[in-house]
Write a structure and sequence with these properties.
Layout (H helix, E strand, L loop, with lengths): L1 E6 L4 H11 L4 E8 L3 H11 L3 E4 L2 H4 L6 E4 H9 L6 E4 L7 H9 L3 E4 L3 H10 L7 E4 L2 H10 L6 E8 L15 H4 L9 H9 L1 H14 L6 E5 L5 E7 L4 E5 L5 H9 L13 H4 L13 H12 L3 H17 L5 H14 L8 H17 L2
Parallel strand pairs: 1-2, 1-5, 2-3, 3-4, 5-6, 6-7, 8-9
Antiparallel strand pairs: 8-10, 10-11
Helix pairs in contact: 1-11, 4-5, 6-10, 6-14, 9-14, 10-13, 14-15, 14-16
The chain binds NADP nicotinamide-adenine-dinucleotide phosphate.
Length: 369
């Protein structure tokens, strides 16, 4: 029996992971962790009868009554490195997920990695260390690429990340966009932060950087194509010009399950795919001028050092402000570009350099809004 913990069980990926586990034999859920949604966490704990529960928000965690209660990001680290646990589903939002990520990797766990911000920001230090644990990507594009690349690493010339283009692909002006409009994603149902990132195309930018760290490809060999139907999630171009692609309905249960069972494949609780029903598949170049965060992410992925961390932290803060209606949609672009321009990149940063760069970027967002 493989023991699993879910960090971020109260979120969109976390709930999908619970759905996957409901049908998956040979896996036992032993712990769940949320951000601050105490009510939902307790409901999940009762339904699943888990041993451990916890919340990142210490105040809310203090009100929890359960067999074993953990709190704060330290508690998440404790759960991620618990002896006997085999797989950690990491579905917290934000770069703070780096702490439980490192705890899990150092203690030899498999990390089913949905969170992207931690890999983007701390990639420069993560890629230098040797861990006994492993990361299996859950992000649908990276899961697809992982499946296409595996076993033919030397044959791959270029990798392609597909993007739906978000809700504003065909909208003329990006001025005056409301939170409600930006949260209406055309093809995926996801948490608020990633939905806004999809609308600004920052999500694709973060994924480009994530791919450089997960697969060791330079940005010059990573291409983004707009594919509004979200049926192909990732493609690879091989040396002879052949392409391999991974297709499915847009449903996160598939990559979550694959990260749990890899290298095995099992029946998954998803609607069977039908290419005829999927119909026409189209592709376009992304418009980097209208969506400048994507080109900024390419720059960050090329320069690396503390650049990706600053880009990500500034974006996290700007998106928070947008969701609180304190910043306009195009204000996200303006603020993130400004903070990045002010930053002096540190090459080859230490963990502490990245922490400090993130702190600086978050403060700087407050100063320029
Ligand atoms: N959703 C998707 O389809 C999808 C696809 C690919 C990748 N991802 C990535 O997976 C991660 C989770 O996405 P999601 O869509 O599941 O997000 P979500 O629905 O917003 O859930 C996020 C989880 O993180 C917790 N959380 C909220 N604020 C936090 C904070 N400040 N610090 C730590 N934890 C916090 C939430 O707790 P409470 O709700 O209890 O406050 C919840 O458990 C993100 O990094 C995202 O980019 C998501």
């Amino acid at each position: 029996m493989k023991k699993v913990v879910i960090l971020g069980s109260t979120g969109s990926i976390g709930k999908n992971a619970l759905e996957v586990l409901r049908n998956l034999e040979g896996f036992e859920l032993v712990g769940i962790y949320g951000g601050r949604n105490r009510e939902l966490l307790l409901k999940q704990a009762e339904e699943w009868g888990v041993e451990y529960i916890g919340l990142v928000d210490e105040k809310e965690a203090g009100k929890l009554r359960w067999r074993r209660v953990l709190s704060g990001i330290e508690g998440a680290c404790e759960l991620a490195s618990l002896p006997g646990v085999d797989v950690v589903v990491l579905a917290l939002v934000g770069s703070c997920a780096v702490y439980p990520l490192l705890s899990a990797l150092k203690s030899g766990k498999r990390v089913a990695m949905a969170n992207k911000e931690a890999v983007v920001a701390y990639g420069p230090v993560i890629e230098k260390e040797k861990f006994s644990g492993e990361i299996i990507p859950v992000d649908s594009e990276h899961s697809s690429l992982f499946q296409c690349i595996k076993g033919r690493e030397k044959e791959v010339e270029r990798i392609y990340l597909t993007a739906s283009g978000g809700p504003f692909r065909e909208r003329e002006s990006l001025e005056g966009i409301t939170v409600e409009e930006a949260l209406r994603h055309p093809t995926w149902s996801m948490g608020k932060k990633i939905t806004i990132d999809s609308a600004t195309l920052m999500n694709k930018g973060l994924e480009v950087i994530e791919a450089t760290f997960l697969f060791g490809f330079p940005v010059e060999r990573i291409k983004v194509v707009i594919h509004p139907q979200s049926i192909i999630h990732g493609m690879v171009e091989l040396k002879d010009g052949s392409f391999l692609a991974h297709l499915s309905w847009p449903d996160m249960k598939l990559p979550i399950q694959y990260a749990l069972t890899y290298p095995e494949r099992r029946n998954a609780p998803v609607k069977p795919f039908n290419p005829v029903e999927a119909g026409k598949l189209t592709f376009e170049e992304p418009d980097m001028e209208r969506f400048p965060l994507l080109s900024l992410a390419y720059r960050a992925g090329k320069e690396k050092g503390t650049f990706p961390a600053v880009l990500n932290a500034a974006n996290e803060e700007a998106v928070k402000l947008f969701l609180e209606e304190k910043l306009s949609f195009t204000g996200i672009f303006r603020v993130v570009e400004r903070v990045v321009e002010l930053h002096k990149v540190i090459e080859n940063p230490s963990f502490e350099d990245i922490e400090e760069a993130e702190r600086w970027a978050r403060e700087e967002v407050k100063r320029c809004t």
